[in-house]
Amino acid sequence: MATDSDATWEYETVRPPREVTMREAADPKDLLNEFGSEGWEFVDTIDYAEGGTKYLVFKRRGSGDDDD
């Protein structure tokens, strides 16, 4: 049985949704649910140096294939 230390992971980064003005963040619930239904787990954000979120970071177990 594989343990987490044996697991391989794949990662995805996505820009968070913005309101019409593109200055305000929109509620990311739909985006989070979409990625969650595809097996992605939200793990962190990457932020701009002066504040605000640049990317949402997701991970899921990799297929174990090293041929990608």
Key phrases:
alpha+beta, 1 helix, three-stranded antiparallel β-sheet, 68 residues
Overall description:
The protein is of the alpha+beta class. The chain is built from one helix and three strands; from the N terminus they run E-H-E-E. Strand 2 (41-47) and strand 3 form a beta hairpin. The two termini are 24 Å apart. The mean pLDDT is 85.
Write the layout of secondary structure elements.
Elements: E1 9-14, H1 29-37, E2 41-47, E3 53-61
Antiparallel strand pairs: 1-3, 2-3
- Written as H for each helix and E for each strand, in order along the chain, the element string is EHEE
From the alpha-carbon coordinates, what is the Rg to the nearest angstrom? Answer: 15 Å
Low-pLDDT runs: none
Number of strands: 3
Short description:
This protein is an alpha+beta fold and 68 residues long. It is 13% helix and 32% strand.
